[in-house]
Specification:
Blueprint lengths: L1 H20 L7 H23 L6 H11 L2 H6 L1 H9 L3 H14 L5 H28 L2
Length: 138
């Protein structure tokens, strides 16, 4: 009995260790927001840099580059983030959409509205593709 319990514990520890090493720990909606914030920051910094003269000078480029450093973590965690993105509940999708609309603020309001609509459409499509995939696997 003790040997069996010990084996089960070892197996569970190996699974946890594999998830940590492979960076596959389950992600939360907060993790998605952090990843999206990196992309929002890059795009808003780029738009602001281009606003006045349609060029990016050294200082503006530096600001964009610093905001892009967060992409390293996002890229490392892309698989578990994608899994969470595809498995969002309706409530989480609503929360994420509202948060995105509040956080994303372009100077060009028309472009901002288009990007926000595209984001909402991507959320809907991710859910639809998950359902289709589950139906195909049955």
């Amino acid at each position: 009995m003790l040997v069996k319990a010990r084996k089960q514990l070892n197996n569970q520890l190996l699974i946890i260790l594999k998830k940590v090493i492979m960076n596959e720990e389950p992600k939360t909606i907060g993790d998605l927001k952090k990843a999206l914030l990196v992309l929002i920051s890059i795009s808003m910094n780029t738009e602001k840099a281009l606003e006045d003269d349609n060029h990016i000078d050294f200082g503006e480029g530096t600001k964009i580059a610093f905001s892009a450093l967060g992409l390293i973590k996002v890229i490392k965690e892309i698989k578990p983030l994608a899994i969470k993105f595809k498995s969002l509940t309706s409530l989480e999708k609503s929360e994420l959409t509202a948060w995105f609309r509040k956080s994303f603020d372009f100077i060009n309001d028309n472009l901002e509205a288009i990007i926000e609509d595209i984001f909402e459409t991507l959320l809907d499509m991710a859910g639809l593709l998950t359902v289709v995939s589950q139906l195909e696997n049955k």
